[in-house]
């Protein structure tokens, strides 16, 4: 849980310290630019921009019931973030599983991705999987 929030926390702290240093030097304009930029970058890298994750077993159960894909991801992954933003509002229709919260989900990704925890990995209800898929392909499934 802490791993996913570490990068946003560090970015926010670095922005606050940088802005404080700039303010101490009397450079208020730069300080006013640095802090919001760091906070915005922290927000983009936060797990909060993703739909609420569910456990791997629950996601597979839901996927079998409604036919929607399961997307395995991890906080801080730029490819996961890119997929999330390219899907837009449609991203909320998929079942998102954070592999850092669920060791069984991480094992499922390793089984599909030749022993690596490569994310995003999309698994369909019929068991087919695709690692780092194109957003348009995922959108068609949703």
TrEMBL record:
UniProt keyword terms in alphabetical order: Membrane, Signal, Transmembrane, Transmembrane helix
Pfam families: Glutaredoxin
Keyword Protein biosynthesis in annotation: no
Matching SUPFAM superfamilies: Thioredoxin-like
Leader sequence residues: 1-24
Domain Glutaredoxin: residue ranges: 70-124
Membrane spanning stretches: 34-54
Keyword Signal: yes
Entries under InterPro entries matching the protein: Glutaredoxin (IPR002109), Thioredoxin-like_sf (IPR036249)
Name by which UniProt lists this protein: Glutaredoxin domain-containing protein
Species of origin: Streptomyces althioticus subsp. attaecolombicae
